[in-house]
Specification:
Blueprint: H1 2-13, E1 20-23, H2 31-37, E2 38-40, E3 52-54, E4 64-67, E5 70-77, E6 96-98, E7 100-103, E8 115-122, E9 129-137, E10 144-149, E11 155-161, E12 167-173, E13 181-189, E14 196-202, E15 205-212, E16 220-228, E17 241-252
Length: 253
């Protein structure tokens, strides 16, 4: 017992920080568990920059279905949407009803708090499908960091937006068979106290390192969404499209 106390004291004095779980890996086990940690739709509502309009609520899980440990987002073609175009720039025509969720907790990297965001995903990669797992600014824009973004090809895009023109992107091959693969981002403040280093992993292998200029102290939303067309091309699928996430875990130290 004395040895254990001594070891613990050494670790603490050496600066090892406890890990805090913000979103547990079982948050998609049921609707009630999901609603403890996630909100329906985007933080700003139902529309964004593609042709999918997000639909879902505590009483409607036809497009946002958390069950059995897996979140399933479902996009289906729609007709006569009201309004007929997205309310967000660049105001594309709405062709699909789909799903998006965002975490209730915001992600803010500081000089004393780093974050790890991870999960496993089955992502469609056909033309016209645009799923994502990403961070975006609570106030203004940027920052933005895309941990998972699939734009109608068999690649995952890791992106960090410092401005609309200053963007770092790294593409990694992604299987087209809808099998699950893990993604992870580790966000740590740089020694200058302003910038954030982002290490991106796929299947536990480091695939890219990017830097967010001025990201320290900026609150960000964590979003999982199945957008359609837009940057992934058109026309999109004529039938049902699904995007699945499981074992999403968010921690900070």
């Amino acid at each position: 017992m004395l040895l254990s106390l001594v070891v613990a004291t050494v670790f603490l004095s050496a600066g090892v920080h406890a890990q805090t779980t913000v979103i547990p890996s079982d948050s998609f086990s049921s609707v009630s568990r999901f609603e403890q940690f996630w909100n329906y739709l985007y933080p700003w509502g139902s529309d964004h920059n593609g042709s999918g309009r997000m639909v879902g609520s505590s009483s409607d899980h036809s497009h946002i279905n958390p069950a059995g440990g897996t979140l399933t987002l479902i996009a289906t073609p729609t007709s006569n949407p009201v309004p007929p175009t997205s309310t967000a720039n660049p105001n594309p025509a709405i062709h699909y009803a789909s799903g998006a969720v965002h975490a209730k907790s915001q992600i803010t990297v500081t000089s004393t708090q780093s974050w790890t965001i991870q999960g496993e995903f089955s992502a469609p990669t056909v033309k016209g499908t645009w799923p994502a797992f990403w961070l975006t600014a609570v106030q203004g824009w940027p920052p933005e960091a895309d941990i998972g973004e699939w734009k109608g090809t068999n690649n995952n895009w890791y992106n960090t937006f410092n401005t609309s023109a200053v963007v770092r992107s790294d593409l990694v091959a992604w299987p087209a068979d809808l099998s699950f693969h893990s993604l992870k981002a580790v966000l740590t403040a740089e020694s200058n106290g302003k910038d954030v280093r982002i290490d991106f992993y796929m299947d536990n292998a480091l695939r890219a390192t990017q830097f967010g200029a001025g990201f320290v102290g900026k609150a960000m939303w964590l979003i999982v969404n199945l957008q359609m067309e837009g940057s992934s091309g058109s026309p999109g699928p004529s039938g049902t499209t699904t995007y699945k996430a499981r074992n999403v875990l968010v921690t900070h130290t």
